[in-house]
């Protein structure tokens, strides 16, 4: 059940996140040229909705970097890491296929192959693989710090008289706060690379771009593809260990 939840949650993430990129990028979409604020807000809400749907079942990692980061500090069993990651990758691929279907008439009328690729995967504004890698590491480390911080604060929510509101915080507010965290990362750190901060989010849809019959789609830029995969995995571990070594959650 947890693997199914990760599959569904990641599919929701890409359906709504990739969908907002398609909306602002593809010709004759009603959201065409909506801009960066629309994209970052759409991705933030995509994360929040995915966490609301599957958080109670699997914890809603929906991101291999989160899974690996948590496992590296002992907060998640290593035995479940491969299953989570495979489910996330499959969910991301499926979500991308759904975006393709939703915008089916728009691929043919869109001339720009880079805009089409951008619906599925990230690309750097200035191509410098070392700098792009560092950006993804820092952004994902911030993601893990934020996620762990939001989770830790759920145990400290109460009102005068001792009423415990931690359940309300964890189940009601935390998913929205995580979405706002992703919004903040996108606004502040997303400009250089498009902030993948999630290997499945980039790799699954990039594979979909490669295999789907998209008219005039161009190449899938596999020369860059390692950056939004390896960078977030490294950043996730770093962010989790910063959290653990500082003792903030103790």
Describe it for me?
Its main location: membrane. The chain crosses the membrane at residues 6-27, 34-54, 84-104, 125-152, 172-197, 222-243. Keywords: Membrane, Transmembrane, Transmembrane helix, Transport. With 250 residues, the chain is mainly alpha-helical. The chain has one domain (1-246): Up-down Bundle (Glycerol uptake facilitator protein), CATH 1.20.1080.10. Helix content is 70%, strand content 0%. The chain has helices at residues 2-25, 36-58, 64-72, 81-102, 104-109, 113-120, 129-153, 166-189, 199-211, 227-246. The chain is globular, with a radius of gyration of 18 Å.
Mean pLDDT: 93
Uncertain spans? none
CATH architecture: Up-down Bundle
Oligomer: single chain
Largest beta-sheet characterization: none
Secondary structure tally, helices: 10
Strands, total number: 0
What spatial form do the alpha-carbon principal axes imply? globular
Question: What is the string of SSEs from the N terminus onward?
Answer: HHHHHHHHHH
Distance between the termini: 30 Å
- Specify the CATH class: Mainly Alpha
Q: Would you tell me the structural class of the helices and strands?
A: mainly alpha
| Radius of gyration based on Cα positions | 18 Å
User: What is the CATH superfamily classification?
Assistant: Glycerol uptake facilitator protein
Beta content: under 5%
Tell me roughly what share of residues is in helical segments: 55-70%
How many structural units, i.e. domains?
A: 1
Q: Which fold name corresponds to the CATH topology?
A: Glycerol uptake facilitator protein
Keywords: Membrane, Transmembrane, Transmembrane helix, Transport
Subcellular location: Membrane
Protein name: MIP family channel protein
Membrane topology: Multi-pass membrane protein
């Amino acid at each position: 059940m947890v693997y199914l939840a990760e599959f569904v949650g990641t599919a929701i993430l890409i359906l709504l996140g990739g969908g907002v990129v398609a909306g602002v990028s593809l010709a004759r979409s009603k959201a065409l040229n909506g801009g960066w604020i629309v994209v970052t807000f759409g991705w933030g809400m995509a994360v929040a909705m995915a966490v609301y749907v599957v958080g109670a079942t699997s914890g809603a990692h929906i991101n291999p970097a989160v899974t690996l980061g948590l496992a590296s500090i002992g907060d998640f069993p290593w035995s479940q890491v491969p299953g989570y990651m495979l489910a996330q990758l499959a969910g991301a691929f499926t979500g991308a296929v759904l975006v393709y279907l939703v915008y089916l008439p728009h691929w043919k009328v869109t001339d720009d192959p880079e805009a089409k690729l951008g619906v599925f995967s990230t690309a750097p504004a200035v191509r410098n693989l070392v700098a792009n890698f560092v950006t993804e590491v820092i952004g994902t480390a911030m993601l893990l710090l934020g996620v762990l911080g939001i989770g830790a604060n759920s145990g400290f929510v109460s009102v005068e008289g001792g009423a415990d509101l931690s359940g309300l915080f964890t189940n009601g507010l935390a998913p929205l706060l995580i979405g706002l965290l992703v919004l903040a990362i996108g606004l502040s750190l997303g400009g250089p690379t498009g902030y993948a901060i999630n290997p499945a989010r980039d790799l699954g849809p990039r594979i979909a771009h490669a295999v789907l019959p998209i008219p005039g789609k161009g190449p899938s830029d596999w020369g860059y593809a390692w950056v939004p995969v390896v960078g977030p995995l490294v950043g996730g571990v770093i962010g989790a260990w910063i959290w653990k070594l500082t003792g903030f959650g103790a």
